[in-house]
Amino acid sequence: MNILEPSMGDGRFISTLKALDGNFKVTGIELFESEYQKVQDKVFNDDRFKLKNEDFYKFYRETDSHYDLIIGNPPYIRYQLLTAEQREIQSDILEKNGLKANKLINAWVAFTVAAIELLVPSGTLAFVLPTDILQVNYAKELRKLFSSVFTHLTIIQFKETVFDQLQQDVVIIIGKKKKNFFDDHAISIKNITSSNDLINININDLPVEPSTVTESLYKNDKWNLTLLEEEDRVFYESIKNSDKIIYFNNHIKGEVGITTGKNSIFSVSNETVLDYDLSDYTIPLLGRSVEANGIYYKPEDHEMNANNGKNVNLLDFNNKLLNFGAEKYIENIEELELHNGYKLSIRNKWYEVPSIWVPDGFLLRRIGSYPKILLNKTGATTTDTFHRLTFNSYYDKDLLIFLCYSSITLMSFELESRIFAGGALEILPGDLKNILIPKPHLEIYFDKNLLSELDNKLRNNDEIEHVVSWVDNIVIQLCRISPDTVHNSFCIWKELRENRLNKRK
Ligand SMILES: C[S@@+](CC[C@H](N)C(=O)[O-])C[C@H]1O[C@@H](n2cnc3c(N)ncnc32)[C@H](O)[C@@H]1O
Known about the structure:
By secondary structure, this protein is α/β, with parallel strands linked by helices. 36% of the residues lie in helices and 20% in strands. Residues 7-10, 12-13, 29-32, 35, 55-57, 72-73, 75 line the site of S-adenosylmethionine.
């Protein structure tokens, strides 16, 4: 049996292999000499191991060997940090295997694709990979490759953070390469609590997903669905396709907030406005998440933020004659050379910020405990901490916002956003096409006081699970949706959220 470890580091996999009896041959590669030497010292008298202090990219280009097992934890290196030669070989690896090369692709993707290529038919890949594999767009093609090259793919995920010293959350991917191109493909997903549970896993007897779910998984932009147990995955798929929901994007358009290029120049406090006589150039601004609680962003909230010295004004100099104060403000910035960033340099006038408009509502880009969606009652705009929302629906906007706090919607936020190490979620405007909202029944009347009540509950910091249960009970009536569906969604949302927040500890 021929085994390859393409990036040995200090040799954890190699040490484990060394402890095993057996007549196998291991090729181990490591770029850095000091690391290589550590591993070499561990196996120097064992002729089953042939270690090389080499760049795996070069090794790939030169080797004609194939392996029965390729195991490891490939390096996480941004394209920009690769050498020109590594970039060139990375493009070769990707293109040769049917993937498009681009500057977003991290080294671990190329290592994985190269390793798959270097497997013999029926050979096995076992890699520790960043959870990005399940989520980021640039890994989408890699996920597609998995379905065409592996006959069986196992994904093992951890509820707890596995390697404390790593910034990245990781998953384990184990793929068995097809013998023939037309062999079937199946996927099995195992969610375990911690690395201690790995010992109980026999990859040969994991349950295999029904083919319909496998298919829908490969169609999805993200693989967060793998966070669910099989039964819940089937439930989520069924609710997505039911006539009881509508899609966020079809009713509320989300666009990024204003990219000022430098918020410290363009978002200013009332004091600065007074000092420089800038009141003709200001638009109310909701700058940071801490400045917004509840459902409404009201004039009173804005005033309170202003009184607390927050930067509640956006400077808009577009097509306006500059008064003495404005000229002085701009000159000061230029003297201090604060305006030299790239984004400002590509404008005709660096101080004219494009795309300033006032939205109907806001959605916080980073999701902490739960998504923050607000209605704009002040004529404020926002920088890119928030997305800007515009309502283009025949449904009343108060009703839509209310429904967004149902567990159906919150469950979809957990599943359709990108999860970062440490449990933060990020939602991008492109993800909103997958966010679900329970569909209001046509004959219902929505009492707007309910939204004020929701606003109060959130401002009072009521326990979010109680708030969502309360919304859910009303949703059952507003949407004539079955209590079981709502209850199931609540349980799924609660568990996803708890698991995510546990990773923050
Ligand atoms: C995430 S560590 C994996 C270490 C080891 N597999 C383990 O789990 O302990 C990645 C290793 O890849 C090495 N590396 C980075 N670029 C490489 C390259 N082009 N060729 C070979 N190794 C490389 C790094 O030096 C680092 O030791």
